[in-house]
Amino acid sequence: MPKKLNNNYKKFKGFTISATAILGIVCCALSMPPVKKAGNIIPLAGQWRFQIDSTDKGIGDKWYLKQLGDTIHLPGSMAENWKGNNITLKTKWTGSIYDSSWYYNPRMAKYRQPGNLKIPFWLTPHKHYTGAAWYQKDVVIPADWKSKRVVLFLERPHTETKLWVDGEEIGMQNSLVAPHEFDLTGKISPGKHTLSICIDNRIKAINVGPDSHSITDHTQGNWNGIVGKIELHAGATTWLDDVQIYPDLKDKMAHVKFTVKNDGPEVNGKITVIAKLSNTKLQGSVPSAVKPCKIANGVTEIMVDLPMGDKMQTWNEFNPALYQLTAKLVIGNAPADTKQLTFGMHEFKAEGRNFTINGNPVFLRGTVNNCEFPLTGYAPMIEKEWDRIFAICKAYGLNHMRFHSWCPPEAAFDAADKAGIYLYVEGPSWANHGSGLGLGRPIDQYIYDETNRISKVYGNHPSFCMLGYGNEPAGKQVEYLTKFVDYWKAKDSRRIYTGGAVGGSWPIIPNNEFMVRADARGLNWNQRPESNSDHSAKIAKFNVPYVAHEVGQYCAFPDFKEIKKYTGIYRAKNFELFQEDLKDHGMADEAEKFLYATGKLQVLCYKHDMEKMMRTPGYSGFQLLSLNDYPGQGTALVGVLNAFWDNKGYVTPQQFSRFCNSTVPLILTEKFVYTNNETLKANVELFNYTRPMNAALTWKLTNDQHQIIAQGTFDRKSYNLNNCQQAGEVSVALSNITRPTKLNLDVAVPNTTFSNNWDFWVYPEKIAKVNTDVYYTTELDDKARQVLANGGKVFLNGAGKVVKGKEIIQNFTPVFWNTSWFKMRPPHTLGFVCDPKHPIFNDFPNSGYSEMNWWDILKKAQVMHLEEFPKSFRALVQPIDTWFMNRPLAFILEAKVGKGSIIVSSADLSPDIDSDRPAARQLYYSIMKYMASPQFKPSVEIPINTIENLFSKPSKEVFISYTNGAPDELKPKAKTK
What we know:
Low-confidence stretches: 1-32, 966-977
Oligomer: single chain
Strand content: 25-35%
Distance between the termini: 80 Å
Radius of gyration: 33 Å
Structural class: alpha+beta
Largest sheet: 8 strands, parallel
Helix content: 10-25%
């Protein structure tokens, strides 16, 4: 090729042709594909050659010198391309299996058969592979790149990459958080070359922990491949390697720090910086700043101050104003090296026990992102999908997201910047379950390397407000993380730092700038529900902002309609197993009712949990675990949204955001169930982190017919940015309510969308005695048998005497996380379902699921295991079992026994109920009226011995662990005794 060939137009045999066209002709002649580039970028997406290296022969056999025999499409993963191994019982997963009983449980045997393999731990991919795999592509370097710096850019490989150009090894990179960039300057010349990349996704010397969401099969999966942008970049040999922007609100200045690298002799140049608003209705540019500079060989750091002007816009959740900065490095007549990036003028700080944004208090209302993306198995690499996720978060009242032991790609930061979401990003590690910090292992340095990469690549994003090592570590964590926090506090003041997010039993890192802990969260519903208590005592020892770690974890029943959504690399075999098991237990027709009833209880728990945190003085925020479901760790259905961020149908964003928002009316009241000789009292407060406001809050109390019982307006007051701001007191005498009634108290901030509401129940203080021939008994004694034999009626109060089902623990709150991950730790139920239109409830109005009026009935009450009843039998009040067992349960049931009829209750319902249990007393009255009426005619006949067995014989079907279930075991050895 002629040495003087350039991109100027040349005369070539009578017609005009450019150098690029000539290069294309030459490439064709050499059987090379034409160069497809956009400026200084050659995209490499498309078909690559491919080969699996399961025996690690590739390097020794020099696969980089041969043509690989298979093909694959990139960007993508092996699983997306149907590459890898089939799923078997011997699949070596990446992740701890706490409950391994599935491998040995006879009831699960049919789900362990080839062709019907259904595992309950997590979603099942089409293919699975851990090990080395090779990716290969021919590229053509254009002639005009001869004197340029050339870089191979891999936006997100997983995990370790080794690169060869033709036969020369370029190097290795291993990052789970940032692009892998290989400098090919001097290694690649104009013409055709072969890139060979070996990617290895095994846990090797660097062990971040097998349950880390950056790698685990619990969440995104331990995939092998490259996603995002795959490109060759060309640029100047003196270049802007790094640009970091440090907002200074006080002086209305952006301090721009440049790291310039130079592969040649010392040169003189200048840096020009300009900025303009990019996403607001206001238009405006910042006057440019120019700085001459002398650039030595190697690395030079240069600081440029950019005045932002008197009309400077600041960034926060309500006004996420962004600036686009353009920086140019010009050296002589050479083309400028240019970088464009987005930043926001903001300061996110910890001041005392409060977070502030630009000097104003902020309360974090967040969710944990666990990297669950069932269609691809990896995080979205385009901004559009993150726009959708953050829009959903905003609709549900959230302003914050924590990334649990993983770091999202650039697209997530871009979307969060525009949405106004405060991000807490973690290194890619849950250093536990086989890993640990401060033990002299490679992970110790890797955490520093990875968090430095995070800061360099994503540090200018205003949404990036908080950084931590990762999740719940083991090892010498206090010593290690104390140094880690000190390192980052000294290095970069743009965000605040914590050692990591931890449970309440983890040691305290003393120099944390904020705490993410589980000491102060949850509901104490072993006692009567109220809204007076808070977490003040539990957070008193902390003098920095306190954020509740992994709040909630209240489960709902699986939504089997979700199964059809799994059209990507994963299948919901766990859901299929649960659905089939429910069918085997005769309750397939109840799945939708179970979902709705458990979802309503879940929402009730979240509401009261979040309100308790919001009414705690000095509290700073919470992170739900999570707004959407977690498909791993045994399948944790803790979200009001599914794993796709879709609504499950039992709470709308509008309903949820009434109690989760930047401004929320709150009440303090001692109880939610009253008798009509009492006065309903509630102190009203305003939680307000929207803007200072002057308002006269309004309230109204309505009955179940939507009639107004009482209403009022509080005095107009000024409300600052804070919580616990008193508005006034609601006090309503209930003497005019003569029947069992559900009331609703609504408190609103006029002329805004902010309002909140609570349900109350009122029961008559005096209840007339029901004249009935029902025989009340606490055991199935001889008289009860005689009454039934003679065609009479029996009410059996079996409270405290249930044997068949006594191992099944029911609380008012539902299953926590799931019963698999915690090896059947109680509670085991998810609330209950009943038919509120059944005549047994004529005098006990209810919604058919758990509400506050059921608390004194359900608390610590046993459930009955109906394993010997017909599968079609349905209890009047039916507790919903954990989906890992799906046992038919009862709380109250009716049956025909011989000539007689019986109602059996495992709740303590009797003629002598204390006055402090008005709901239980009213339910017993309603049952007696029903039994005295002609409507009491049970149709299903049950042998008396079957009922007797409920109180004399243990359950046949019980949970058996089969293994000791140590966290680090893939398949623990089965117990032999």
